[in-house]
Design a protein that fits this description.
Belongs to the TMEM86 family. The chain has 218 residues and is mainly alpha-helical. The protein has one domain. 81% of the residues lie in helices and 0% in strands. The protein is built from eight helices and no strands. α1 runs antiparallel to α2, α2 runs parallel beside α8 and α4 packs parallel to α6. The longest helix is centred in the last third of the chain and has 31 residues. The protein is globular and about 45 Å long.
């Protein structure tokens, strides 16, 4: 059953990328809001319970819809939704395992450098971007403690939102919209599938051994 969800996700992702590349707004309105819910279906099928990553996917779906609406207000609403997504992912990853210190230091350094370089170009978005990007960077760092796949997903999420930040700062990037969506799709897929596998593997070991029903006679 879980493979069917991933198959549906792959098909919708292809449609979404075609819609972005061809600048077909109607196609994007149909496809983009389905991306996170399809991965949520996969995760619930694999895990059979709601966890923080599932909550994060719900808010990612809401953020995707908000970002389809033009205007600064919708952009801020979308950023707020994705802030909850990052915090939910961060919570799940930290509960699973602590990330390497080197990864945390590296991502925080990248956060500081990127915000310093874009600070003068972001205008009124400076503080929202500063806070959101901190949560995003911490999530990406925490993802390195879960698995290689989630680490790749965290890095792709950071790259996707960095591209959005460059666009908000007025920095032109070739194939900007397509790159943003491709890295975002890769991020969600890597994080969700990586988390499903890593958390399922860890669960049996984390459960306490059952106590014997009666004392041993030996």
């Amino acid at each position: 059953m879980s493979r069917r969800w991933l198959g549906l996700f792959g098909g919708v992702a292809a449609v979404e990328l075609i819609g972005v590349a061809a600048d077909l707004t109607e196609v994007q309105w149909v496809a983009k809001p389905l991306l996170a819910p399809l991965l949520l279906g996969y995760l619930l099928s694999a895990r059979r319970r709601v966890d923080p990553v599932a909550v994060g996917l719900v808010f990612a779906a809401a953020g995707d819809v908000a970002l389809l609406v033009p205007g600064r207000t919708a952009f801020l609403v979308g950023m707020g939704c994705f802030l909850v997504t990052q915090l939910a992912f961060l919570t799940a990853f930290l509960r699973h395992r602590r990330p390497p210190v080197a990864a945390v230091v590296a991502y925080l350094a990248l956060w500081a450098v990127a915000n310093a370089l874009l600070w003068g170009r972001l205008g009124a978005l400076r503080l929202p971007v500063l806070g959101y990007s901190l949560a995003l960077s911490l999530m990406a760092a925490a993802a390195t403690g879960v698995s290689r796949r989630t680490a790749v997903g965290g890095a792709l999420f950071l790259g996707s939102d960095l591209l959005i930040g460059l666009g908000a700062a007025g920095v032109a990037v070739p194939w900007h919209a397509l790159l943003v969506m491709a890295t975002y799709i890769g991020a969600l897929a890597s994080i969700t599938t990586g988390w499903a596998r890593a958390s399922a593997t860890a669960e049996p070991a984390s459960r306490p051994s059952p106590l014997p029903l009666r004392p041993s006679l030996s």
